[in-house]
């Protein structure tokens, strides 16, 4: 069994919300997408992303990593077609992090710098790897994690859905344990809230009941309190 919570907010600076969220607890299917592009095209790209995931995946009875990868590639084709048909949307794209819980396993697919985290036995671990210029510098040892948080090019993506026909999609899976907590979030959370504060919220989520404010909303509120410089979208899934 799982409990799922989600929340999204435009933030304190942006004029509109280009994030999109997919939360289907009855299908144990979840995704976040962070759109990019002028004239609200980012909003179109992220919405197309979650729409394709819902349509392609929600009716399947069996799942593998290839099913998730194929759905992301289908969304890539849809976004490219939409941009070609509408010149005002040229250059739009989106990140995506999608999670499917199936037969006791967590299956995921990922492109961009939204993230999937696993909180297990008091430890917060980042499952996905950012496809960003700054993350490449961290991997090379040229930047520390702290320097990366404040780097002027931290939002420069090296990979996004809807930008190129040939898209590499990261996928993976792992066996779930009782009381695992999974977090999907756009970078509007991670840029504002420290990992230790995220971990505290997820620890508290394990003991939450329906009468208490949900952890996704609490994390969004923390991002807003820290300045809310970007749209922020959060999904928290508690596995039991």
Question: Could you characterize the architecture of this molecule?
Answer:
- By secondary structure, the chain is α+β, with helices and mostly antiparallel strands.
- It has 7 helices and 11 strands.
- Strands 2, 3, 4, 5, 6 and 9 form a 6-stranded antiparallel beta sheet that branches. Strands 1-11-10-7-8 form a 5-stranded antiparallel beta sheet.
- Strand 7 and strand 8 form a beta hairpin.
- Helix 1 packs antiparallel against helix 2.
- The radius of gyration is 17 Å and the shape is globular.
- The model has no long low-confidence stretch (mean pLDDT 92).
Helical element count? 7
> How widely separated are the two ends?
5 Å
Tell how many strands the DSSP assignment holds. Answer: 11
Low-confidence stretches: none
Secondary-structure element series: EEEHHEEEEEHHEEHHHE
Helix content: 25-40%
Overall form:
globular
Outline the fold blueprint.
Elements (H helix, E strand, L loop, with lengths): L1 E8 L9 E6 L4 E8 L4 H17 L7 H21 L7 E2 L1 E7 L2 E7 L3 E6 L2 E4 L6 H8 L4 H5 L20 E6 L5 E5 L1 H4 L4 H11 L9 H11 L6 E8 L1
Antiparallel strand pairs: 1-11, 2-3, 3-4, 3-5, 5-6, 6-9, 7-8, 7-10, 10-11
Produce a short descriptive summary:
The protein is an alpha+beta fold. The chain has helices at residues 41-57, 65-85, 133-140, 145-149, 187-190, 195-205, 215-225, and strands spanning 2-9, 19-24, 29-36, 93-94, 96-102, 105-111, 115-120, 123-126, 170-175, 181-185, 232-239. It has seven helices and eleven strands.
């Amino acid at each position: 069994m799982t409990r799922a919570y989600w929340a999204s907010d435009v933030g304190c600076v942006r004029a509109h919300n280009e994030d999109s969220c997919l939360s289907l607890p009855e299908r144990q299917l979840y995704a976040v997408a962070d759109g990019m592009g002028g004239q609200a095209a980012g909003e179109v790209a992220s919405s197309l992303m979650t729409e394709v995931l819902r349509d392609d995946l929600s009716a399947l009875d069996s799942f593998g990593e290839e099913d998730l990868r194929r759905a992301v590639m289908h969304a890539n084709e849809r976004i490219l077609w939409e941009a070609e048909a509408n010149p005002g949307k040229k250059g739009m794209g989106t990140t995506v992090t999608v999670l499917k819980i199936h037969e006791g396993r967590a299956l995921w697919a990922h492109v961009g710098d939204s993230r999937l985290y696993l909180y297990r036995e008091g430890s917060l671990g980042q499952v996905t790897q950012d496809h960003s210029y700054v993350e490449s510098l961290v991997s090379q040892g040229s930047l520390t994690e702290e320097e990366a948080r404040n780097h002027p090019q931290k939002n420069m993506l090296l990979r996004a859905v809807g930008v190129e026909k040939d898209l590499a999609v990261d996928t993976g899976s792992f066996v779930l344990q009782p009381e695992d907590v999974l977090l999907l979030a756009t970078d509007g959370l991670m840029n504002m809230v420290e990992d230790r504060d995220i971990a505290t919220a997820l620890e508290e989520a394990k003991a939450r009941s329906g009468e208490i404010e949900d952890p996704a909303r609490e994390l969004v509120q923390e991002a807003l309190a820290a300045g809310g410089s970007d749209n922020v979208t959060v999904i928290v899934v508690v596995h039991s």
